[in-house]
Amino acid sequence: MKTIVFEKIGQLRIEDKPIPMLDAGDVLIQMELCGICASDLAALRGDVSDYAPPVVMGHELAGFIVESRHPDVKIGEKVTVNPMLSCGVCLDCKNDRDKYCNTIEGIGHDIDGGYAEYIRMPKHGVDTGKLIRVPETIPAEVLLFLEPLGCCLNAMQETLGDSPCGREDAPTGTVAILGAGPVGLMLTQLAKRRGLATYMLEPLVHRRTVAEEVGADAAFDVSDDAVAHLRDITHGGVDTVISATTNNAAAIALAFDVVRRGGCINFFGLAPEGEELRINLEQFHYDGHKLMASWAFSRASLAASRQLLIEKALDFAPLLTARFPIERGLEAFENAAAHRGVKTALHRC
Asked: What does the alpha-carbon distance between residue 223 and residue 202 come to, in Å, rounded to a whole number?
């Protein structure tokens, strides 16, 4: 089968590998579509360190079961995966904090993932609920968003709580999303579902257009004039900023520029390894900002994501803008890295 192997920083290779052999309890998934995630691009650049190359990347998967040696899994079931394989018995796993498990292995990070024609889900993953079945009616073009949408739902819950009007200390309910990539566009739709006035900041014109198409009240570039206008119409800044872009120095500064005093910033996007957040503590004290970071998902947020897909609650059509066969995987990564369109995905050869 064709695969895309992350060899080392700066190096991908298209490689023919054997179709995985199954042990008792394992299942084999045939990949239909697999989205290219910003974390994969970051790993290739050397900006993040939670990958163990050489490994077949890919965790935003849509596929179906073609072989099963597990008694509870049937051939033909449409599936995606929870890519965090954890022990299932430690305190963090029992409290739905699998991402903090000390034995975690990531599909597409540590073990071979979805940039392949076939993917093996080990018995342990099935037994701990990491195989997610969905109705046949959910198309692959939507299913590949289940995992990143779960990340967005987790971030929204951690940032805004369960109140439909947002944080209790956010009287006007305004939120700014930094970055109109796939995650930023999903966060935009989730914020609008909560009834929040939602503003997008994005340097690329075509992505600002999509942000307004999916519901943003307004989309701004990141110029000084645009930031000043946003601060003016929100009477001093937004209540909440969620940074869904690479949290480099420019993005960090932008977040502080558009948040009001007493507001919240969630540095949700990845940051280059070694990036630091430096704060004047006296100013921070009097500005009263709430700073946080969200990452990944919970089992509960993935379940909620699955339900939203079933309900057709979000518009994914403008998000998936390019598809490449695995054999053109290097071209696909170049397309994603150049920010052409919005979302790039791979499909079987």
From this structure: 10
Those residues whose C-beta lies under 8 Å from the C-beta of residue 71, and which sit 6 or more positions away, are none
Judge if pTM exceeds 0.85. Answer: yes
Residues 68 and 132 in one domain: yes
CA 174 – CA 41 distance, rounded (Å): 31
The token pair that represents 78 in the structure block = 């449409």
Question: Is residue 161 very low, low, confident or very high in pLDDT (cuts 50, 70, 90)?
Answer: confident
Question: What span, in angstroms and rounded, lies between the C-alpha atoms of 285 and 290?
Answer: 10
Residue 36 in tokens: 């290219």
Task: Tell me: pLDDT of 166 over 50.
Answer: no
CATH number, domain containing residue 214: 3.40.50.720
Give the orientation angle of helix 182-193 with respect to helix 205-213, to 10 degrees.
Answer: 30
The set of residues, in sequence order, having a beta carbon less than 8 Å from that of 315 and lying 6+ positions away, is 189, 214
Residue 171 has pLDDT above 90, yes or no: no
User: Percent helix, strand and coil across the chain, each rounded to 5?
Assistant: 30, 25, 40
Which residues, in sequence order, are bridge partners of residue 220? 201
User: 208 lies in which domain range?
Assistant: 152-292
What is the Cα–Cα distance from 30 to 108, expressed in whole angstroms?
15
SS3 174: strand
